[in-house]
C-alpha cells in the first residue's frame, strides 16, 4: 500500500504543476516534496511527471497512477462508511471530530447545551491533530468536524459555517525570561523551546513563512515544536513545570493564569486561527441539527 504522504505529494503536484506551489499546499518544504515524488516514482516503477522550465505535467503513466489513487480513495471511503454505519447501529450516536485546541473552547460548552436538550444522547469525540478531520467526515466516520479552514480546499460536498476568528496565544511560566523581552516577534518566539498539539502541515507552512521562507526556515519549521502531544491538559501542566512556551487558545490557559502559574507572552503580531464547522450536505438527524444550530449561534461569525 502506498504511503499516504507520497499520494498527497503526487496529487498536489499534478493539481498545481509546480514544486514550490505543491510543497506549500502539502505543508512541506520543496526538497521534501521532491523526495516524495521520487519515492512515488520508485514505487510505481515509472516516471510520473515531465519536468520543464514551465512546470511539471503528469506523464501517461502519471495519469494512470492518479486514476489508481482516485480508485483507492473511493474504495477506502466506501469501506469507512460501511464501518461507520455498522458501528452506529442500535442507538442515536453523534460522532464529532476536532483538534485539541477546540475541546475546551468550543466542544465542551456546546455539548453542555446539547445535552441539556438531549440528555440521553450518546456522543463520540475523536480528538486529533495528526489527521485531517474532513477525511473522516467525507468517509462517514464522523458526523461533524470542527477544524481549521486550511483543512477545507474543496467545499463542494460540504456545508460550512465559519466561526469568529480568534488569535492564537502563547504562554509560559511567569519566571520565564521571555517575558522580560516582550513584546517579542513571532520569529524570535518560534526559535524558543515550544510545545503544542501535533501540527498540521499548513501550520508548519505558516511557521516556515514567519521564519523567513527559505530552506533553513523550512528545516527549522519541520523540527517544531520540541514537544508535540494532543493531550492539552498534559501540555499545560508541563508548561507550569518547565521553561517551555505553550501555544493555544486563551480559554485553555484561563485557570492557570488566574492562579498565576502561567502568563501570556506578549507578541508584536498575532496569528489568527480560522475555525469552521463542517458537515456533509444532505446529512441530517436531530442531534446533529441541534449541535449545528448551537455552534452557529454561539460561535458563528
What's this, in brief?
By secondary structure, the chain is an alpha/beta fold. The protein has helices spanning 4-16, 19-26, 30-44, 60-87, 103-117, 133-139, 186-189, 201-210, 215-223, 232-241, 250-258, 286-299, and strands spanning 49-52, 55-58, 93-98, 122-127, 144-148, 158-162, 166-167, 169-172, 194-196, 227-228, 245-248, 263-264, 272-273, 275-280. The protein folds into 3 domains: 4-82, Arc Repressor Mutant, subunit A (Orthogonal Bundle), CATH 1.10.10; 88-165 and 274-299, Periplasmic binding protein-like II (D-Maltodextrin-Binding Protein, domain 2), CATH 3.40.190.10; 167-273, D-Maltodextrin-Binding Protein, domain 2.
Task: Characterise this structure.
- A hairpin with a 2-residue loop joins β1 (49-52) and β2 (55-58).
- The protein has three domains: 4-82, Arc Repressor Mutant, subunit A, CATH 1.10.10; 88-165 and 274-299, D-Maltodextrin-Binding Protein, domain 2; 167-273, Periplasmic binding protein-like II (D-Maltodextrin-Binding Protein, domain 2), CATH 3.40.190.
- The protein has helices at residues 4-16, 19-26, 30-44, 60-87, 103-117, 133-139, 186-189, 201-210, 215-223, 232-241, 250-258, 286-299, and strands at 49-52, 55-58, 93-98, 122-127, 144-148, 158-162, 166-167, 169-172, 194-196, 227-228, 245-248, 263-264, 272-273, 275-280.
- With 301 residues, the protein is α/β, with parallel strands linked by helices.
- The chain is flat.
- Strands 4-3-5-14-6 form a five-stranded mixed β-sheet, with helices on both faces.
